[in-house]
Structure formats: structure tokens, C-alpha cells
């Protein structure tokens, strides 16, 4: 058995990580909070070598009910959703689905993987009917991305087309409605266009106007845990995983969360949460979503019990 966890996507296969497959039914504890998972681009809810394995691992080691979010009615639809179903639609669907799950009525912890991180944060901010205790984001793109260096899960030719489309047409109505990644494309060279044209990220980051419900709901979290992968070659810039980003007007120099207007103006309430010790910054020495089971246990289990 491999002791490594590898959630980096390659071409049409999703090579994520492998946990020991459990064939016996797990008896979950009613005293611990359930866990909800949201997969990233190029993955699905239930591949046994990815989030299906994570589900079994968490059920076994923490002994809780685990729900891995599936968009659509099949694995194929779920896979396609990572590219073609607008995040706003996905968040609405998931809000309705989780709100009717009786096993989640008492609250739950949530883990987002890659783009599933910002989708889960949007769920926290928008879906007031849910009771989410801790939010953990692994390799999330909280300030968006500017570049697709390895362009996972698709062919190099298609990858190059995606790059060209995003560079020159990310903020057109067509691309904002057609391609999921365009909705969190953040061009630091054209901040005004990003703020006015982004149909997802600029909204959940309160950059168009301050939605007080978003602030109120986010501050209900007990902990907001962000994990950054220090050797990430997928997410650009990698500091977006900690809510940092390029300084406006250029794409070389990075500013941390506390230097951004989102924090300084407290547009999302992150400064207040930071003052209350609700924000946790964790790092992992690995490429995108690559970590060991031991790292997962040592660093994240305390936020899942």
C-alpha cells in the first residue's frame, strides 16, 4: 500500500491518492460532527482512488458520517460539472441538497479540494440554512488564479486553447457562463474589469459591493483553515491558497492577505475573524494536493472532531 497522498491531476486521469479500501460497513458516531467534501477540477465525488477513498478513510479513522458532494446524476455529469456548470448554480444545488440531509441537521465540518475550496466558502456565505462548524480548504483559489501552468486533466492542445480564451476573453458573458475557471480568473492587470465582470469570485469576495449576509455567515465558522502547498505548480499564484495575491497592476509582486484591501477594509470580516483567532494558516511541502496520510492526521484531524 502506498503511504502517499497525491491529488495532482494529469491529463484525462485523476491521480489523487490511495487509501486502504474498506469493505465492511462503518458504524458512525452520533457524538461527532459529520464531514462534507467537495472535489476539485478533473475529479468526482466518488472515484475509489480519490474522494471515494478519502470518504472511507475518514469514516474509518474518525468514525463519522461523510458526504462527498456529487453534482448531477452520474459520475460523468459530476466530472463535467468541474468545467461546465457555473459555480453559482452548483452552490444553489448543493445548498438545497445538504439542507435536506437529515444527518447534517446538527451541523458539520467541511473540506474543499482545490476549486472545491472556494465553492464551499461560497456555500458557507450564501446558504444560511446550513450549520458549518469548521471549513478546511486544501489548495483553494480564494483570490482566483492568473495562469494555467500545468493545465491538468486535459490535452495540451485544449490546454493552450483554454489559456488563450481566458487571457483574452475571460470576462465576456460567453466565457463567464460557459467555463467554470473563467468565473475565478483574476487578472491583476485589469482589476476594474475583473471586479465588474466576474460572475462568481468578485461577488463572494465582496469586491462588487458588501453583502452583509456573506460577512455574517462566514463569521459563524469556528475555524477557517487554509492549507497552502509550497511547491504548487498548478495554482498561480500559490499564495491565493492563503488569500494572498498579486499587487494590483502587475503580475510579479505578491501581497499577503493582511496587505489586501479585502482584509484592510474588512470587506468579508476576515480581519475580525483573524483577531478572534478563527483563521488558521497551514502549509505543506508538496505539489498541488500532495500530502501524506500522516500529515493529514497530524494537521487536520483536530479540526474534524
Key attributes of the depicted protein:
single chain; 305 residues; Rossmann fold; six-stranded parallel beta sheet; 12 strands; 33% helix; globular; Palmitoyl-protein thioesterase 1; glycoprotein; Palm_thioest
What does this entry look like structurally?
The chain is an alpha/beta fold. Helix content is 33%, strand content 15%. The chain has 12 helices and 12 strands. A 6-stranded parallel β-sheet has the order 5-4-6-7-8-11, with helices on both faces.
Q: What's a concise summary of this model?
A:
Belongs to the palmitoyl-protein thioesterase family. The protein is 33% helix and 15% strand.
Tell me the layout of helices and strands.
Layout: E1 4-6, E2 9-10, E3 13-14, E4 35-38, H1 51-61, E5 66-68, H2 75-84, H3 87-99, E6 108-113, H4 115-126, E7 132-138, H5 156-169, H6 173-178, H7 191-197, H8 201-204, H9 212-218, E8 223-229, E9 245-246, E10 254-255, H10 261-264, H11 270-275, E11 279-284, E12 290-292, H12 293-300
Parallel strand pairs: 4-5, 4-6, 6-7, 7-8, 8-11
Antiparallel strand pairs: 1-12, 2-3, 9-10
Helix pairs in contact: 3-4, 4-9
Enzyme class: hydrolase
Keywords: Disulfide bond, Glycoprotein, Hydrolase, Signal
GO molecular function: long-chain fatty acyl-CoA hydrolase activity; palmitoyl-(protein) hydrolase activity
Amino acid at each position: 500500500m502506498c503511504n502517499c497522498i497525491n491529488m495532482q491531476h494529469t491529463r484525462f486521469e485523476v491521480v489523487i491518492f490511495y487509501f486502504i479500501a474498506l469493505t465492511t460497513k462503518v458504524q458512525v458516531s452520533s457524538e461527532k460532527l459529520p464531514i462534507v467534501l467537495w472535489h476539485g477540477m478533473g475529479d468526482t465525488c466518488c472515484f475509489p482512488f480519490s474522494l471515494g477513498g478519502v470518504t472511507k478513510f475518514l469514516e474509518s479513522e474518525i468514525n463519522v458520517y461523510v458526504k462527498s458532494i456529487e453534482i448531477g446524476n452520474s459520475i460523468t455529469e459530476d466530472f463535467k460539472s468541474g468545467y461546465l456548470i457555473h459555480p453559482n448554480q452548483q452552490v444553489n444545488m448543493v445548498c438545497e441538497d445538504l439542507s435536506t440531509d437529515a444527518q447534517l441537521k446538527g451541523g458539520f465540518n467541511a473540506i474543499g479540494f482545490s476549486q472545491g475550496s472556494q465553492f464551499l466558502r461560497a456555500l458557507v456565505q450564501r446558504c444560511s440554512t446550513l450549520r458549518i462548524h469548521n471549513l478546511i480548504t486544501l489548495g483553494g483559489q480564494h483570490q482566483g488564479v492568473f495562469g494555467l501552468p500545468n493545465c491538468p486533466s486535459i490535452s495540451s492542445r485544449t490546454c493552450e486553447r483554454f489559456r488563450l480564451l481566458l487571457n483574452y476573453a475571460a470576462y465576456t458573458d460567453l466565457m463567464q457562463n460557459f467555463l467554470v475557471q473563467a468565473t475565478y480568473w483574476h487578472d491583476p492587470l485589469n482589476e476594474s474589469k475583473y471586479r465588474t465582470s466576474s460572475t462568481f469570485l468578485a461577488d463572494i469576495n465582496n469586491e462588487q459591493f458588501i453583502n452583509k449576509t456573506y460577512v455574517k455567515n462566514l463569521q459563524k465558522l469556528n475555524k477557517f483553515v487554509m492549507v497552502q502547498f509550497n511547491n504548487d505548480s498548478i495554482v498561480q499564484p500559490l499564495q491565493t491558497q492563503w488569500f494572498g495575491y498579486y499587487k494590483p497592476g502587475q503580475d510579479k509582486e505578491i501581497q499577503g492577505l493582511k496587505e489586501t484591501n479585502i482584509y484592510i477594509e474588512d470587506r468579508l470580516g476576515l480581519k475580525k475573524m483573524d483577531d478572534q483567532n478563527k483563521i488558521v494558516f497551514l502549509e505543506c511541502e508538496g505539489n498541488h494536493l500532495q500530502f501524506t496520510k500522516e500529515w493529514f492526521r497530524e494537521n487536520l484531524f483536530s479540526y474534524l472532531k
